Every structure is written in C-alpha cells, then in structure tokens.
Amino acid sequence: MEIIVLIKQVPDIEKVRFDAEKGRIDRSSAPAETNPFDLNALEAAIQLKEKLGGSITVLSMGPKQAESSLRDALARGADKAILLTDGRFAGADTLATAYTLATAIKKLGRFDLIICGEKTVDGDTGQVGPEVAEFLGIPHVAYVSEIREVHQDKLLLISDMGDKYLVEVKLPALITVTKDLNTPRLPSLRDVLKARKKEIEVWNADALSDYGDLDGFGVKGSKTMVVKVVIPSEKGRKGIIFRGEDAAEKLLEVLRENRLVN
Fold it and tell me: Average of pLDDT values for 111-137?
C-alpha cells in the first residue's frame, strides 16, 4: 500500500503569542513541533504498512526549518520525505494550501491512501484534508477514530462526528484522523540517528508548474484573508462575601440585579 501522510510544523500553541495588529500568529515566539494530530496520522500509516507492506511518504509545506518535523517522521517509520518550500507558497489560506499539497501529490503520482490529522492546532479549521481530496477528485472520510477493517482496495472505518458512523471507502481515498485512533510511537535513538542521514527532497513552486497553476499558490491563490485578530481577555471568577444581619437581603438584591431570581 502506497501511503502519503500530510504533516505540518506548528508552534507550541501553549506558548505562542498572537500579533493582533498584523492578524497572524507570531511563530517566532514559541518553539516549533509537529502538529500532534499529524503524529496520529503517521502512526496509522505505519500500522497499515506493517499489515499490508508498501511505503510511506510524508509531505509538508513550510519554511526550511520544517525539515526537523520531516526527519522526526522518518525516524518514526516513514520511508520518504518531501518539503514544499518557496516564498510563493507563503500567506496561503486553507484553499491555497490544499491546492499546493494536491499539486505536489499529482507530481508524486500513484498512491492508495492519504492520511491527515483532523486539524492543526494553529489553524483549527479541519478544512485542508477534505479540500485536498476534492482537488484530487477522490473520496474522503473525516474524523476517523477507528480503522476497523483493512483491505487492498477499501477500508472500513468509524467516523466520529458527535455520533459515530460506520463507513466503507474505496481506495484511493483520503482520511483525516482523531487522537482517539491510536497512541503515536516514539522513535528509538538508533532510528533518530539514521534519519539524520536520510535525504529530504525539497520542491519549490517551479517544481510543481507542470502539475498546477502557479497563481493557485500562496497569497495569489487565497480566497480568504484575516482582517482582525481579537484575543479574549482572561477574567477570573470573583466572589462576594456578605456579612452581618442583612447578608441575606444583600444576596437577594444581587441575585435580582443579575436576573437570577424574581
């Protein structure tokens, strides 16, 4: 089975700061890591490879530093890694991101299955995976929490959309997976050292020009833009202590002011 796993390097979301004026995440404000849901996608691919054989290609779009996430994927069990990096890819919304990834997949050629995390912790939209499938014209199943049966030409899946659905999908297809699907394995020191020596292919926009429209990449290909970022203030709960003989009357007055009692 030929599997492609889409991964993204994201900032540590618990430490990152937001630039409200520019309407973007300040990625330099926090250390980078592989999107956690993408590690579940990679683990799913590794388990399928162990059952059916084949190979795993990890594909990522991002700056040069995203190579560290690709090397981590190689250490965990991927066979091949490709980084899409070019200034012309910058500023992409979910549509342009999906178009770029789908164009790269067309360049890769044959595949049986594409696996993505259900969403990224920095964007939190869950749109890119399904959009990639639409650009490729293949079926997709989102929020997969269980792979129940595996065959060479189809999968039987549980999709958790609040309610759980049993879905059969014919290959080639794309699935997005939840954190409930598995527990990602950790790479051994030996595999980490081996991954450092492996080649990572780097493709720029020109490398994809025979398979897609360059105007579909980056800002040019984006149909949406962030106009404003609002960071909600964190307000803690505050308490009021009523003392004295009239404490009950004061409490009742506050409750009436807040329309909690008549």
Answer: 95
